[in-house]
Amino acid sequence: MIWRGLLILTLLLWGPTAAAGQQQVTIFAAASTQPALSKLAERFEQGEDEEIGLRLVFAATSTLAKQIAAGAPADLFLAASEDWMDYLARRDLLAPGSRRNLLGNRLALIAPANGAAAPPFDWSRPQSLLALGRLALGDPDHVPAGIYAKAALETLGVWPDLAPSSARTANVRAALALVERKEVGAAIVYRSDAQGRGDVVTLGLVPSQLHPPIRYPLAIVAGRDSAAVRRAYDFLSGPKARAVFAEAGFQPLANGG
Q1: Strand partners of residue 138
Q2: Do the Cβ atoms of 55 and 27 come closer than 8 Å?
Q3: pLDDT tens figures, 179-193
Q4: N or C end of the chain: smaller count of CB under 10 Å?
Q5: Whole-prediction pTM
């Protein structure tokens, strides 16, 4: 099946083998959560719950949702889009009562760092985006970050001008990589992706009123509920995880957002 290839590929990113006697909990998570979630997984296994191992599978939210619908063995799903969580809910693939909005985020306009301080972008002059060069973004046909970015650019009235030359990537981290390699002039990514990256500069945060709210829902996959899965779920929803997510540039949401 297609999902098996995805699982093998993405586990190369972060997927330690479970220690003897450990229960394994598999988390499918949006690519943008990789740095924060990897850090949390290490803390969980080393200090919080040594009896449970966390296997993290990262990709675009749309890809992961389709893999879960096709039967991929995910226990938890952390999405970057409410729409793709709805996709699974319509198919009765979420454990009842487990869905909650865990995080918020912002979009950032970034460019390659050149050693000089970049002036903040003036969003009252959106046509200036054309002067930045080729723009990278997650594929707006299915990648949440790209969908949000396209909505903002449409609101600004510049999407028809930018779309033909835009670099559309499989996930938001790939758009960031294009800027890091200076293969494009700019990109729109999540604030959490750009934070702390010395090889890119943030020109400004995209005004949040230009696009729908960015929310990351978390849910247990139907049929995968267990004591181990619940312990991992509670950890990701708890105060220690919220602190790590906040440090990484996310906005933890109280009471399910």
Answers
A1: 169
A2: yes
A3: 999 999 999 999 999
A4: N
A5: 0.85
